[in-house]
Amino acid sequence: MRVLSGIQPTGNLHLGNYLGAIRNWVRMQDEMDSESQCFFFLADMHSITVHEGREARIRNVRDMAAALVAAGIDPDRSVLFNQARVPAHAELCWLLNGTARIGWLNRMTQFKDKVGKDREGASIGLFVYPVLQAADILLYNATHVPVGEDQKQHLELARDIATKFNTDFGIDLFTMPAPIIPKESARIMSLRDGSAKMSKSDPSDMSRINLTDDDDAIMQKVKKAKTDPEPLPEMAEGLAGRPEANNLVGIFATLTGRTPDAVCADFAGKGFGAFKPALGEVLVETLRPIRERFLELRTDDAALDAILDKGAMRAAAAAEPTLRAAYDAMGLMR
Ligand code: TYM
């Protein structure tokens, strides 16, 4: 088993990232046997599609590394690195640009969502973003890719690219990666709008719970979260058509390891005035130890750089054979 996943080091790690992806990364790492390997990386080459100054980018990469370690990624057991330090990602991306079709990329919903109406003004990087993501995955022959729901289409594209490359060059080079998407927390929604996913790029900080939020901020955000005036239903099916209520119950269920039905049964007939403080408490208790560890780790840049240096060396060594084989299959090596 080869587990691989990435996160863009832009802004803070938020609850959506944690419950949708990172918690699963840690579980898979902790359940790994001696035959398996985990690769987790900061997608800083992807993040150039968002403009940022030099200093901010350097800080953000170190902060996200600290956040992942604080959340439970162990850089001795897992290979933790930033993409820019392993040039094989950019190289394989270029080779795969010969395989990926414009029509495939035109169908990517994330691209459409991100560019909105200004398609002509979007960067080429944003358009080919999913090809770099395919390279990230195929380079390591990843078999399992733990991600949130929003990455599913990119995973399907990676499989299409792998299949076409293997067929075009008559070689069984790339392994088919399978997305690992959690059942309950695949899509954590904004606290302000139950129809939008919780995201780093939402201009309202009240829409998300950040790993860096202190206990008071978490309680405040939960208290102010949008809900409806109805009480909680007896069963989760009573949450249909109530996206905000559904989201909060889903978060509570995920954090406590229970089903949404069990949570509803506990709070049935009570209003959100009673439910929110309980949810806030669970969030505070879950996030506090991660935040405290994060704040400690981010004070030691040298230690974070050492982790990323070592990770980049291990990743580059693992990526090299696949990259060479791809060049060779294409007749680019003599
Ligand atoms: P990114 O940085 O947007 O998000 C990192 C991970 O968090 C998940 N996620 C969520 N899950 C549930 N609810 C939410 N509201 C939510 N918001 C984010 C994402 O699904 C993701 O798993 N393109 C990727 C990074 C990437 C990558 C890769 C991932 C680059 N190369 C190769 C896997 C394999 C991204 O922008 O994730």
| Count of DSSP H/I helices | 12
- Approximate shape: globular
Which CATH architecture of the largest domain is right?
Answer: 3-Layer(aba) Sandwich
Q: Report the structural category.
A: mainly alpha
What can you see in these coordinates?
The chain is mostly helical. The relative contact order is 0.15. It is about 50% helix and about 5% strand. The two termini are about 30 Å apart. Helix 2 crosses helix 11 and helix 3 packs across helix 6. It has a three-stranded parallel β-sheet with strand order 1-2-3.
Write a compact overview of the structure shown.
The protein has two domains: 2-186 and 301-329, Rossmann fold (3-Layer(aba) Sandwich), CATH 3.40.50; 205-296, Orthogonal Bundle (Tyrosyl-Transfer RNA Synthetase). Helices cover 52% and strands 7% of the residues.
What distinguishing features does this structure have?
5 strands; 3-stranded parallel beta sheet; single chain; 7% strand; two-stranded parallel sheet; Rossmann fold; globular; Tyrosyl-Transfer RNA Synthetase; mainly alpha; binds tryptophanyl-5'AMP; 334 residues; 2 domains
List the helices and strands and how they pair.
Blueprint: E1 2-7, H1 15-30, E2 37-42, H2 54-71, E3 79-82, H3 88-96, H4 102-106, H5 109-115, H6 124-138, E4 144-146, H7 152-168, E5 178-180, H8 215-224, H9 243-256, H10 260-267, H11 272-297, H12 301-329
Parallel strand pairs: 1-2, 2-3, 4-5
The structure holds tryptophanyl-5'AMP.
Residues 5-8, 16-17, 20-21, 43, 46, 133, 136-137, 145, 147-148, 150-151, 186-188, 197-199 line the site of tryptophanyl-5'AMP.
